[in-house]
């Protein structure tokens, strides 16, 4: 319904501008999208009716709206790039774009945009494409509600797959409600500022669900990143807000819920880290507020490497993780006060909800593993239980600054 | 041999001990399944129980049983029977009766919980297989204790020591060795040391099948490459069987020379 | 029937049997006497193959028994302590022994003889010590073995049972068997044994009939004769 209303608005709008409406339909006088684009003028709308269209490269050089009715299937005759957009204000809506083959020379995409503004790609199905939607040097675009999926093959690797949504040197972008599967990275951002990524579902991608670098002032809200090869990796960025995201089932020897490398002055709030090998892996990251997150059943909830300073962990729930915290190097300025740790067994005599005994989330064995990786073969042995217990009773080896001085007796409930 | 097996099996399976052992497994398995509500977690928890309890019960209970049946053993050995047949038969009776209690006690609740049709079946079978082999290995060690020490108190203490050694002290030495060679790659050394202790080997096999290897990072991948590959599985199984065959060989040799 | 040649056995440094040679023949009841630690039990256990001697040989019907087991088909054994698997019934126990020996057993007669008919389906752990001794005897006597070896057979028996035991022994002796037993009860020795072997510190100190022993010591009482024997030794 909303879609038709939108189409109506577009029609009225174009009528006002005296813009034309072209209809593409199989077995009619206008049966090729390629010709329709050539015939069209700036501001026109092209309607594409259902059917299967084999097209030569579609180059768009003036503002244009292309709307598919019942997902017409568009394919490049050489199985190469489908849309190349070199104009502002191009909208592509409701198409099924498919079969862009792997190419080791050109990064072919279903939709590629270079140096433009105000574009909108909405409700498209992009199937079996090398890259899905790729934007370079662009701004104020909306990528919404697209379904981008490759057919997984046996022998795929990082080289033979491209990213589903790939942005490079962009700003003020909105990426929302997309679903991406089986690509190299689900969402890849490099030098992308002031953008919002929200409510996307990113599943089963080969490398990272979300991968961004050198991208500042961005917000990531309510996305789900599930079962991606190496989870989510974010690097060399500042002023990032990550809120209400789910990081789940990223399981493998080099897999992370969220890998932070050189991220500063950011907030990670109310995310849910469930069943990842490592919930958050942090390296060279400073002044990050990690509040009110849930870490459930991860191998390691937190792994913190050297030169990470002044980070705050508070009001988080740590539930049933094999290891809660591992710290490598000597960062003494991180604060772990006021969390709930399900492995905490202290008492609360004054009944104020805060345990009277500080909690040490770093287990001795996790430190041993850090130093001598092959000792991990002793995991879950009786000896390790005894060592951990002894260290808990009389801590001599874990330093004092790795303590929660106000451990909560009950899990936090966030509204 | 079969006659002796039959009598000792039926003697043991009707003992209060077997019943207690069976009930213990039934209760603890059901409790763990009920509380975790999740087959993987239950298998991990049962792994800890099995790795600790089966060696302990098999050695200590085995030694007690052998001491108690000492006089009867004398009577039977004075009958026209080969010593080898007697000891192998009695050993099978002991280990199989313990194993039956374990298989039923742990198996029934898991089957009731629907492990058969689930994707965790192979994990569960590895768990049961490890428990089974540990039972056979450690009841064999109890023979060594009971034949070696005439004094029951000493023998009982030694059985406990064997258990303690295999479940804790060995790993302590293991860890010290790894620390000692800290600056070298010790993955292969760790694999070899694991092969020499059936409890460690059992634990690592269960863990790798449960996909916990991911927790071990790069080294986990090395271990998985060894233990997860066909060769590794063959070597591990062979080692566990050697843990039975070699002691059986020595048991028979020792039993032939022993005075009763 | 049984020949013992230069038998030596030690446990560690403790020499239990020092160079024992003996020949034991059918149709006789032979008692082995001696103080505690003199090697009585070790000697009979060597014959049964329970103890493996270091030096010497034991021949049964002319063949060495070392490392053999078939010869034990011809030996019945009554151990000193009767302890059985707790959870078996008497019936199952008898079947087990019959199964192992694969010989014809005269168990029905003996069950009646000992009055065990009603106990056959009871688990062994529920039996009294006396009943267990009866079961013990039942196992030893139910096969028609040419040799019967008894280790302290009267321990734990009530007078009635002792009488039964004597009856059994007399009956078996008449079948031209070799009966070998150790005991401390001199009256039993006097009453039934044809021959005495007196062991002291691992050596045969005396071998002969009761009369010979009495004559040797010039006393009419076996108990006294034995005491004399031991005192002389100590002098």
Automatic annotation (TrEMBL), chain A:
NCBIfam families: NosD_copper_fam, para_beta_helix. The gene is nosD. This is Nitrous oxide reductase family maturation protein NosD. InterPro entries: NosD_copper_fam, NosD_dom, Para_beta_helix_rpt-2, PbH1, Pectin_lyas_fold, Pectin_lyase_fold/virulence. Residues 160-346 form the Periplasmic copper-binding protein NosD beta helix domain. SMART domains: PbH1 (SM00710). It holds the Pfam family NosD.
TrEMBL record, chain B:
Coiled coil: none annotated. It comes from Ancylomarina longa. Keywords: Membrane, Transmembrane, Transmembrane helix. The chain crosses the membrane at residues 12-36, 42-67, 88-112, 124-146, 158-181, 201-221, 233-255. This is ABC transporter permease.
UniProtKB/TrEMBL annotation, chain C:
CDD domains: ABC_DR_subfamily_A. Residues 2-226 form the ABC transporter domain. InterPro entries: AAA+_ATPase, ABC_transporter-like_ATP-bd, ABC_Transporter_VariousFunc, P-loop_NTPase. The keyword ATP-binding applies. It holds the Pfam family ABC_tran. Keywords: ATP-binding, Nucleotide-binding, Transport. PROSITE patterns: ABC_TRANSPORTER_2 (PS50893). GO terms for molecular function: ATP binding; ATP hydrolysis activity. It comes from the Bacteria. This is ABC transporter ATP-binding protein.
């Amino acid at each position: 319904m909303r879609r038709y209303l939108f189409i109506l608005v577009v029609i009225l709008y174009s009528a006002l501008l005296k813009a034309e409406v072209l209809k593409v339909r199989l077995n009619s006088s206008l049966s090729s999208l390629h010709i329709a684009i050539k015939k069209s003028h700036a501001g026109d709308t092209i309607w594409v009716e259902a059917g299967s269209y084999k097209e030569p490269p579609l180059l768009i050089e003036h503002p244009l709206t292309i709307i598919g009715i019942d997902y017409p299937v568009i394919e490049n005759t050489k199985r190469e790039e489908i849309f190349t957009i070199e104009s502002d204000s191009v909208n592509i809506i409701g198409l099924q774009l498919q079969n862009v083959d792997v190419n080791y020379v050109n990064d072919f995409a279903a939709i590629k945009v270079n140096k433009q503004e105000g574009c909108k790609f909405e409700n498209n199905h992009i199937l079996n494409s090398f890259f899905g939607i790729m934007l370079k040097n662009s701004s104020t675009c909306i990528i919404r509600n697209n379904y981008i999926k490759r057919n997984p093959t046996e022998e795929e690797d990082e080289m033979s797959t491209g990213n589903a949504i790939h942005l490079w040197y962009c700003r003020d972008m909105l990426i929302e409600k997309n679903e991406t599967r089986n690509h190299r990275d689900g969402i890849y951002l490099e030098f992308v500022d002031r953008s919002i990524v929200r409510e996307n579902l990113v599943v089963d991608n080969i490398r990272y669900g979300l991968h961004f670098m050198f991208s500042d002032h961005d917000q990531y809200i309510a996305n789900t990143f599930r079962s991606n090869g190496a989870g989510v990796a974010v690097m060399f960025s500042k002023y990032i807000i990550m809120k209400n995201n789910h990081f789940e089932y990223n399981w493998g020897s080099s897999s992370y819920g969220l890998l932070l490398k050189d991220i500063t002055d950011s907030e990670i709030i109310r995310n849910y880290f469930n069943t990842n090998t490592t919930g958050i892996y942090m390296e060279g990251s400073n002044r990050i507020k990690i509040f009110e997150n849930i870490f459930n059943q991860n191998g390691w909830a937190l792994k913190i490497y050297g030169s990470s300073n002044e980070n705050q962990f508070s009001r988080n729930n740590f539930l049933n993780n094999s290891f809660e915290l591992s710290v490598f190097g000597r960062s003494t300025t991180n604060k772990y006060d006021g969390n709930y740790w399900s492995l905490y067994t202290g008492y609360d005599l004054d009944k104020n909800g805060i345990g009277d005994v500080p909690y040490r989330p770093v287990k001795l064995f996790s430190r041993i593993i850090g130093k001598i990786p092959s000792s991990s073969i002793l995991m879950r042995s009786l000896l390790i239980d005894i060592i951990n217990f002894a260290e808990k009773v009389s801590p001599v080896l874990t330093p004092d600054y790795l303590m929660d001085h106000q451990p909560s007796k009950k899990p936090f409930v966030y509204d | 041999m079969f006659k002796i097996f039959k009598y000792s099996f039926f003697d043991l399976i009707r003992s209060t001990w077997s019943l207690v052992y069976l009930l213990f497994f039934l209760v603890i398995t059901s409790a763990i399944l009920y509380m975790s509500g999740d087959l993987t977690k239950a298998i991990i928890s049962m792994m800890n129980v099995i790795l600790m309890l089966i060696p302990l019960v098999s050695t200590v209970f085995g030694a007690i049983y052998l001491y108690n049946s000492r006089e009867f053993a004398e009577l039977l050995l004075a009958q026209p029977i080969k010593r080898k047949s007697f000891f192998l038969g009695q050993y099978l009776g002991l280990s199989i009766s313990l194993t039956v209690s374990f298989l039923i006690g742990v198996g029934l609740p898991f089957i009731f919980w629907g492990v058969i049709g689930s994707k965790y079946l192979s994990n569960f079978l590895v768990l049961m297989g490890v428990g089974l082999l540990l039972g056979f290995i450690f009841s064999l060690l109890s023979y060594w204790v009971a034949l070696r020490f005439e004094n029951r108190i000493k023998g009982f203490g030694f059985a406990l020591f064997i258990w303690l050694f295999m479940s804790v002290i060995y790993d302590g030495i293991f860890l010290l060795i790894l620390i000692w060679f800290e600056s070298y790659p010790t993955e292969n050394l760790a694999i070899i040391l694991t092969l020499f202790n059936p409890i460690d080997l059992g634990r690592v096999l269960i863990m790798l099948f449960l996909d916990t290897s991911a927790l071990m990072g790069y080294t986990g991948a090395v271990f998985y490459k060894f233990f997860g590959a066909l060769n590794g599985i063959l070597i591990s199984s062979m080692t566990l069987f050697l843990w039975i065959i070699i002691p059986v060989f020595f048991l028979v040799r020792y039993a032939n020379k022993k005075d009763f | 029937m049984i020949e013992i040649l230069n038998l030596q056995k030690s446990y560690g440094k403790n020499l239990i049997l020092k160079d024992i040679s003996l020949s034991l023949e059918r149709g006789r009841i032979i008692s082995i006497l001696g103080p505690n630690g003199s090697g009585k039990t070790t000697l009979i256990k060597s014959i049964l193959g329970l103890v493996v001697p270091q030096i010497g040989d034991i021949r049964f019907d002319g063949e060495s028994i070392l490392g053999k087991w078939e010869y034990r088909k011809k030996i019945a054994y009554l151990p000193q302590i009767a302890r059985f698997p707790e959870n078996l019934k008497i019936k199952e126990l008898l079947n087990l022994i019959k199964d192992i020996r694969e010989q014809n057993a005269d168990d029905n007669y003996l069950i009646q003889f000992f009055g065990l008919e009603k106990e056959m389906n009871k688990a062994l752990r529920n039996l009294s010590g006396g009943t267990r001794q009866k079961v013990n005897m039942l196992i030893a006597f139910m096969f028609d073995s040419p040799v019967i070896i008894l280790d302290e057979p009267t321990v734990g028996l009530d007078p009635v049972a002792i009488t039964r035991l004597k009856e059994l022994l007399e009956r078996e002796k008449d079948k031209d068997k070799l009966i070998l037993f150790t005991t401390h009860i001199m009256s039993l020795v006097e009453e039934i044994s044809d021959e005495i072997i007196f062991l002291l510190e691992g050596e045969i100190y005396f071998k002969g009939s009761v009369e010979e022993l009495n004559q040797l010591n010039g006393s009419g009482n076996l108990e006294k004769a034995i005491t004399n024997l031991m005192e002389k030794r100590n002098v």
